[in-house]
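Batch job 17 of 40 flagged for manual review because the log was empty.
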Amino acid sequence: MKLKVLGCSGGIGGSTSRTTCFLVDDDILLDCGTGAGDLELEALKAIDHVFVTHAHLDHIASIPLLIDSVGESRCFPLTVYGTPETIRILRSHIFNWLVWPDFTAIPNRHRPFLRFQPVKVGEQVQLGARTITAMPAHHTVPAVGYCLDSGSGQLLYTGDTTYSKALISAINGLSRLRHLIVETAFPDEQHGLALASRHLCPNLLGTLLEEIEVSPDVYISHLKPGVGERIMSQIAAHGGRLRPRALGHGQVLEF
């Protein structure tokens, strides 16, 4: 499998600051932030599955526009996966005929442009030889991460989360984990804000990584614009066995 970074920033501002969206092979998106807008129309038409970690705007902003752009050209609905709570939020606050049309009823409920598929922590979705498993996360709204398994290697994307024993335990159960994408949204001087918003800062990340027993390549996402270099410098200063690197716009990971 192959993952391409379309967006991994904690905000916007600049040609490479796109919010979280990853293209997996040619037909899957992990989250659907502003990064999805950089895909050409034909590439957007090839997307069949969108796995959403949680309902915050920076992770779902492009879903409504994606459906509107490609719905009529598709032969079957685009499927959006998320926790039941995430799907309820999307139905209530986005696809509600007020913010955006309800594309689960367009053109009709028998042949809609969009369908929702609930997934719970630990539940697997099988797409051919590929397995995608919802993983635990701890955020201000119901959230999950996702483990992608090609059959020969694994990649885990945490989504937005703070320190989580359940997440660490799940990571340690992945014997073929090659890549770990983990967020760090705030510098250490905003430790209190990180705790309140249930994000990570370098200190909290260091504690999490110290408890990881497997040895993946670790990549940092969700860096806030303007403070990314400081956050990465603080992460490096914490040291540790694993040596995280900043995830880059356009980067490709294979596993």
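Reviewer: the log was empty due to a logging misconfiguration, but the result itself is present. Helices lie at 41-45, 57-60, 63-70, 84-93, 165-172, 191-197, 202-210, 228-238. Unflagging and moving on to job 18.
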